[in-house]
What we know:
Elements: E1 5-6, E2 11-12, E3 17-18, E4 23-24, E5 29-30, E6 35-36, E7 41-42, E8 47-48, E9 53-54, E10 59-60, E11 65-66, E12 70-72, E13 77-78, E14 83-84, E15 104-106, E16 111-112, E17 117-118, E18 123-124, E19 129-130, E20 135-136, E21 144-147, E22 152-156, E23 177-180, E24 183-186
Parallel strand pairs: 1-4, 2-5, 3-6, 4-7, 5-8, 6-9, 7-10, 8-11, 9-12, 10-13, 12-15, 13-16, 14-17, 15-18, 16-19, 17-20, 19-21
Antiparallel strand pairs: 21-22, 23-24
Amino acid sequence: MREFFVHPTSIIDDNVEIGEGTKIWHFSHIQSGARIGRNCSFGQNVNVSNNVKVGDNCRVQNNVSLYEGVELEDYVFCGPSCVFTNDLTPRAKYPKGQVGYKKTVVEEGASIGANATIVCGHKIGKWALIGAGAVVTSNVPAHALMLGVPAKRTGWACECGELLKENLLCPICGRKYVEIGEGLLEDK
Length: 188
């Protein structure tokens, strides 16, 4: 007996791992070699390509394709119709296949807004917040708030999602942060 839910309109290929408590909704396709963690939710019309890794407790909203080379760590949120790429110079006449794929890692707790585009070959740091419609063309520091085209850091976000002020103290949950390098680290 399966310990996860798959809507009858979805397709799950052979050689797929799906964790306990995960839900896969209407018209989705999970391709061979994909590994999906526990307690994830995949909305309508989601494609998880070959060999993609998805951690535990991820939320992938409607119309998202996770192409080969994409890796989501735990607690990642992908908003509706956000876009991942995996080849910087695609050509229909000269396909490169896997040799041309650039890895994209979305670290723990990061959130990607609706219709944002993540250009391949970059890392999105822990608990970063990518605004709706932003186009990410470089690495994103931990806790960065990224907005615009191309996306630029316009502020910082707490682990709980609240935007931080200059003192880097969250007014909602009380977490305090310090700047390290280009990102933030919780000051415990």
